[in-house]
Structure formats: C-alpha cells, structure tokens
Amino acid sequence: MPPAANEPARASRLTRYQRHVLGGVLLTLCPLLLIAIVLIVLPLPPLSRWLLLGTALLASAALLRWHLRRVTRPLSTLASLLEALREGDYTLRGVAGGALGSVIYDVNALAQRLQAERVRFEEASHLLSKTLAALDSAVFVFDGGARLSLVNPAGQHLLQGKSPDLFGRSDVELGVQDLFAAVSGSVITRTFPGRSGRFEVRHASLRQQGRGGRLLVINDLDRVLRDEERQAWQRLLRVLGHEVNNSLAPIRSIAGTLGTLSARAPLPDDWAGDLRDGLALIERRAAALTRFLAGYSQLARLPPPQRRALDLAVLLRTLARMESAAISVAADAALPVQADADQLEQALINLLRNAVEAAPSDHAEVRARAWREPDRAVVEIIDNGPGPPPSANLFVPFFTTKPGGSGIGLALARQITEAHGGGVALSARGDAPGAVARLWISLGNDAADAR
C-alpha cells in the first residue's frame, strides 16, 4: 500500500493511544478532584480534612502506578520486539492487545515477513553455493579493494589453495591482476598453480553492499576440447572398427577355407569353382575396404574452399535435372553467393541423392527449394521416405544405415558447409512421413556486394 494511504491509519492509532494516556491521567486526578469538592462544600474539622486529603493522595498514587504500568507495558513489549528485529531475531512475537495492539500486530507482521525473506535468502544462498560448486569454470569475486571475497571449488583447485587461505588476498597476491586487463571473452595461454593450458577469461563489474567489486570467470578450454576430442575419436573408432571388421571377417574366413581346400589330396572335382568364388569374394571385400579408406581420405584432406561468385538457384536446378527421379525445384530467380562451386555441388549432390534413395520408387516425391535470408542462403530438400533413423550418429563419419552406404555423405556435406560459415541439419517431416534436409551457407560481405 502506498505511504499516503497509511497516513490516516497511523494517525488513528496515535490518536487512540493519546486518548488512552489522557484518560488514564484524568482517572488518576479524580480522587483529588473529588476530595477538593468535598472540602469546599462540607465544613469539616481540620483532622478530617487532612485525613481525606491523605486518602485522596494515596488513591491517586495507586491509580498513577496502575496507569504507568498500563502505559509502559505495551511500550516495553514494542521495544522488546524492535530490539529483537535489530538483533536479527525474527521469531519473537508480541500479544496484540491494548492501545498499541494494532502497532504490535504490524510489528509481528513485519517480523514474519523478515523471517520469510531470511529463509528465501538462505535458500537462494544455498542454491548459489551448490551451483558454484557444480561449475567447472573457476569463479572469483573481488571486493572494491581488489580483495578476494568469494571463490568456488574449481577456483580453489586452479590456484591450489583452500578458501580460508585465499579469502582476503588481493588479485596481485593471487597473480590474476593482469587478467582484468585482457578483453572479456578472450583466450589466453597461461600457467596456474593447479593447471596450465588455454583458458577463456571473462570479467565484469559488480556491486557489493553499495561498493564496487569485480567478477572473474576462467574457463579451461583444453579440458573441454580434450573431452570432446576423446568422444569424437571414440565414435569414429567404433564406426571404423565395425567397417573394417565387416571386410576382414569374410576375407579371413574365405582364406581359411581356401587354405583347407588346397591342403586336401586329391583335390575335389569342383575345387576350381570354389577357388574362383572365394577369390572373387576376397576381391569384392578388398575393393569395398579400399573405397572406405578413399572416403576417409576425402574427409581428411578436404581443402579450404576457393570462393567465387555463383548462382545457387541455377546450381540447384542443374543438379536436380541430373538425378534419375523427378525433383521439383522452387527457388528465387537469382540467388548469388560466394562459394566453392565444386565443394558446394558435392554437398548438394549428397543430400539430393539421399532424398532420392530414401523415397519409394513407385511414387517418389522429392522437392527442393532455396531462398535468401538476411545473412545466409538456405536450401531445403524434402522427401516422402521413411524419415531419418533415430540416431545421434547421423553426421558421424562412416556411420550409415543404408546397405552398401559409405557413411560419408552427410559428414562431408556438414564439413563443406561449416567451411562456408553454415551447416546442415536433418529432421523428420512434421506434416507427413519423410525427411527434411536443410543446408545453409553464410552470405558474407562479398555475397552482399555481389547482389
């Protein structure tokens, strides 16, 4: 409620308390007033007068003591409540009654609210500490005097120290003062007490208790890259091992069979046919393995793109006419880009061929469209096949679900488009069975000038 709306209520409470005090004072004076009236009206002897006056004084004193206790008790309660709030004890409550009952009620409500705020603050602090402890990034918070006031376990590990030993030390003593001079987000090569390598450094200004402070976050890039590299090698080796075993297992089996056959004496009548069949199988599997290794070389030795001006719409229409199945193309009249024509053509051929092979032969439906966005050119290829398989390895080199597939088409398309500042995505259609392959490349300044 706004302060202006509280003013009448506050004034009413103060007026009620004033009436309470004034009424008690008048009640205290009543015996004296009554005796004064009696003494004025009635002709009493002096002894009786003094006796009545003493009685009136004693009665007034008793009433005064009762009134003081009646006035000071709620004030004492209110003072105790305020003292508890000042000391941070929000559990103490007062009994709302008497002239200041509404004020005590408000103080109780304030204490309850402060207690709830403290619980929320402690929960938020606990969540923050757990979050910082779970972060792999090293987090440091320095106060206005460049003294360390907060550090997470990753930061302790990076500096090889415990938080009690690090707190209060300056950024110069910790050897990180030069990191604030680097541009936030930059990558540096650095040796810390706990680790050396490449790190990303981010820093920002903070406010702590009304004073300035600084936040420093250090990310270990080498560890992240090593983890990603290890996972990539694991996926690649699984696919390589599967493909090589598929070729070597039948070769080993046939070679053993032919060796057993040649050791027999006399040779069976059909030995020549068995020998020809076995050697033919070995030849086919060796050729498949050779094609597989050639595909690997193609991925590993892809040169940087040689960009030149070309019309993506014309290229897409030309490639669509080369496929065996009919492909409908919807594209802008002209879609100029700066790209490597040979590489981009290979990427589009791979996606178009995948769509044609996935579509059913009796009623194939493959559609391609291309358009320009503010900073990129997009090509979308839609088919009515069964859709992409539910696998996270679609873009892993040599992974394939097609019989006789090489498993490098999607991987090569992604590698080409990423070299052009773009990418490739494959997803299921939302309106019908089938797949949607989307390819995009960055237009760049050169492409913008070509327009």
TrEMBL record:
InterPro entries: HAMP_dom, HATPase_C_sf, HATPase_dom, His_kinase_dom, Sig_transdc_His_kin-like_C. GO terms for biological process: signal transduction. It is found in: Membrane. The keyword Cytoplasm does not apply. It comes from the Bacteria. This is histidine kinase. It comes from Metallibacterium scheffleri. Residues 239-445 form the Histidine kinase domain.
